[in-house]
Specification:
The structure holds 2 protein chains of 2 kinds.
Chain A lengths: L1 H20 L5 E5 L20 H9 L26 H6 L4 E5 L3 E6 L4 E6 L18 E7 L2 E7 L19 E9 L2 E9 L8 E2 L3 E5 L16 H17 L6
Parallel strand pairs in A: 4-5
Antiparallel strand pairs in A: 1-2, 1-10, 2-3, 3-4, 5-6, 6-7, 7-8, 8-9, 8-10
Chain B lengths: L1 H6 L37 E12 L4 E8 L5 E8 L2 H7 L12 E8 L6 E3 L6 E3 L10 H4 L1
Parallel strand pairs in B: 3-5
Antiparallel strand pairs in B: 1-2, 1-4, 2-3, 4-5, 4-6
Classes of the chains: A alpha+beta, B alpha+beta.
Amino acid sequence: MRISIALISLISLLAPLVSLAQPDLNGVFLRGSGSQGYPMSQWSAEELPFTKAGQLQFDNNVPGKGPRQTMPALGNDPLGDANPPGLYRTLVYGRPWEFIQFDNRVVQVFEWGKHWRTIWTDDREVPDVIIAGPYWYGYSVGEWENDTLVVKTVGLDGRAWMDEWGNQVSDFALIEEHWRRVGDTLEMTITVNDPDLYREPWTSDTKIFNPQSPDTLNGELMEQIFAPIDEMEFNRRIRDPAAAGPTGQN
Amino acid sequence: MKTLKTSAVLHLPQSIFCCLFLLSHVPLTYSHHGTAVSYDQNQFITVTGTVTEFRWRNPHSALFLDIEDDAGTITNYAIELASPVLMSRSSGWTRATFRPGDVVEFRVHPSRTDAPVGECLFNCEVLINGEPPASTLTDSEGD
């Protein structure tokens, strides 16, 4: 009994030290590599293993960027109506975001859309059901495995595209992220588990995020909200006329 | 719009182009809907006209010009710009950069459909009343 009590006491004493030993993720970062030449997704250089439903959904999405790009006025990108980009589209987009690390969570603040998400690191389990979900930015639980923060995200809103090129995951996807600090930079991959849309799990290429020091132009997050009042005017005065031609006909 | 391209378009000498900044200061992507595909990214035209409106709103900004062709017909031409966040970072522009009545010469990518709409999302080359626009960036930020 005394040994058990001593062990528990020792663990309690060491816990803060373990916490301190975790890599410091704090800072503002910007994605540093592109997706040129990728066949269908900004996340992977490989073809994605669509199920029949996944292929159908991909075919039905008409993006304004990537190999299948179409004039936005003729496409169906949900951003065109000022919907939120969602978590994974934001992560693969080239705008700065900030990691803020607490004892029990890591908060990621995104300039693009001015959204945030919480990665809980307090040993909670990944819930089977997100009662109030789905969420555009999912529900995330993280756990340190040595120097890597392994994040499981569920409860995603399947209406969000996961990149600019028209890929999606379903409401029932489980995405596993691996975040690792390498020098000043952050490396990240995602593994997509989504049997509804993909025959097998697939893992992205490694995405690199470079630190942005506070005295640089991208070092301070600004506001980039999508507001319908703005989007409607933009579409009416710029986007749609650009596609319509001088006669106003598409 | 045929006359627009032949009469209202001026090609500015390279020596007076302004607002050229290194791409390292500019984020990877500029137009969140991929609107770039609506414009001919391999072609530039320079439109000259009088500012009727400068729309400085996130995430979409735009400049509207009245341009006059040889026959005296006035067309309101829209120029899609980047967001104020990006323009303030990349070029040091502010909401006061353009004012109604300013005469501007603006190099843009034209609409693929020949509509009176153009685009410049970064490294914009523009003269306002014959002068380069003022910038809030320091030399080190602009270099």
